[in-house]
């Protein structure tokens, strides 16, 4: 990736417009890169996020808690969990006292998948940045929100 002006063959009326377009363009590029990375594992980036949330929880947690903790709020989170359940990466359990409440937990197979991904998953996408630049970028993104 190079300069956004060259990448999309465009000029911008000011730096704020350029920055906004650059954020959107980069977000799309990151999304495509992530999708390609996870494809061989048969999961999506959102499903990876769900598995990591469940690994961090250590024990079963309510589906709603998973939805609340997701980086990318997915309206189809339940369907994403259904697919993870079909692949035996997570286990689902209904609450005995309230049948509307569903608990989910990462399975041994899901933990094995995360371990395999952890071995190759790195943040080389940000290799062009120094640690200080990464901190500045993170602070700027926080400032936008």
Overview of the molecule:
- The protein is mainly alpha-helical and 145 residues long.
- 59% of the residues lie in helices and 8% in strands.
- It is built from seven helices and three strands.
- The protein has helices at 4-7, 15-38, 45-57, 63-69, 77-86, 108-120, 131-144; strands at 61-62, 90-94, 102-106.
- A hairpin with a 7-residue loop joins strand 2 (90-94) and strand 3.
- The chain is elongated, with a radius of gyration of 19 Å.
- The mean pLDDT is 87.
Descriptive terms for the model:
145 residues; 7 helices; 3 strands
What is the global morphology? elongated
Task: Specify the number of helices.
Answer: 7
How large, in whole angstroms, is the Cα Rg?
Answer: 19 Å
| Strand elements, count | 3
Brief synopsis:
By secondary structure, the protein is mainly alpha-helical. About 60% of the residues lie in helices and about 10% in strands.
Question: Topology, pairings included?
Answer:
Layout: H1 4-7, H2 15-38, H3 45-57, E1 61-62, H4 63-69, H5 77-86, E2 90-94, E3 102-106, H6 108-120, H7 131-144
Antiparallel strand pairs: 1-3, 2-3
